[in-house]
Amino acid sequence: MKEMEIYILTGFLGSGKTTLLQKLLEKEKNRDRKVAVIMNELGSYSVDSKLLGKEATLRELLKGCICCTLKDEMENEILSLYQSSQPDVIYIEATGIAHPLEILDACTSPIIAPYVQIKAIYCVVDAARWLNRKLLNANIRLLLEEQVMYSSNIIINKIDIVTDDERTRVREEIAGKNPGAAILETTFSNGEFDEYGKPLCRPAAAEHTPAHAAHQLKMLTMTYQFSVELNKQAFLSWLSDLPGNVLRVKGFVRFHGEKSTYLIQYAYGIPVIEKMPLSLRDTIVIIGSNLQKDVHKIELKKLEKKSLDIRGNDRRI
Ligand SMILES: Nc1nc2c(ncn2[C@@H]2O[C@H](COP(=O)(O)OP(=O)(O)OP(=O)(O)O)[C@@H](O)[C@H]2O)c(=O)[nH]1
């Protein structure tokens, strides 16, 4: 089964996302890979997409944001790319107001999760905007900071318009917000690129350690496919015992004794389950920061065994 690589480009309005995307696409030309781009714009006309040339399959999602109103369209778009051209890599340019966690969520619906591998979340930061962020409305400032906090690779762009001292300050503040990220400073996204054509970001916390192409994603996802029908109570109690670093669980589950498949949604500690008209593969996706995938896998296997045991006991009674 082919997995498509996904790179998410996030960053505030006008920070330089399209400029970075153009660089990435230029680098892809040197590699024999099938590339697709999904561009999301809030307006009805995407000026940016006209700059991209004809090398990549381009899909545009307009008049909304993939992290909220166009979330379903985004899932459909990735699935349709998988079913049609099966690109090796998809670059997703989000709108400037998109939240990285929500974009990640949109890229990992239980239907498409088995076919994608999220490689990195790049956040492009306008150095001057970052320094002046206190002038922004509190919600916008929070978004700007969360874009930085949840990304794996941070490109501090527009360093031509700040002084050396300011540049150091931006870097230190960003490293403070996300010590696990890798950072690169650029002007018009011109910086070092590795042999895979990816910006050569260096770890924020340890200046002198070797550079990494795609830094470890802080936000991780895992997919699990159930092989048995679950006991509903046991499943709900597994959900309620999840640790705080699990931010989302979603998927489709069949419960013993019930004809319908259930849609599972779990966010911010609150589970919602509802019957689905369709019968879908019993797959769940878990999204969280620093997920301990092996531990969750063991717990899910225990849940399956417990469900089988309860079913066996019910039969005996
Ligand atoms: N001075 C300076 N300008 C830059 C730099 N990088 C990009 N720009 C300019 O900043 C503007 C916005 O760049 P884009 O790449 O379109 O930014 P974006 O994040 O895609 O913008 P939105 O899609 O509107 O959110 C353009 O006019 C770029 O030419 C830089 O490093 N320095």
UniProtKB/TrEMBL annotation:
GO annotation, cellular component aspect: cytoplasm
Pfam families documented for this protein: cobW (PF02492), CobW_C (PF07683)
Keywords: Chaperone, Hydrolase, Nucleotide-binding
Lineage of producing organism: Bacteria, Bacillati, Bacillota, Bacilli, Bacillales
Reaction it catalyzes: GTP + H2O = GDP + phosphate + H(+)
GO MF terms held by the record: hydrolase activity; nucleotide binding
Top-level taxon of the source organism: Bacteria
Name recorded for this polypeptide: GTP-binding protein
Residue span, CobW C-terminal domain: 219-304
Family: Belongs to the SIMIBI class G3E GTPase family. ZNG1 subfamily.
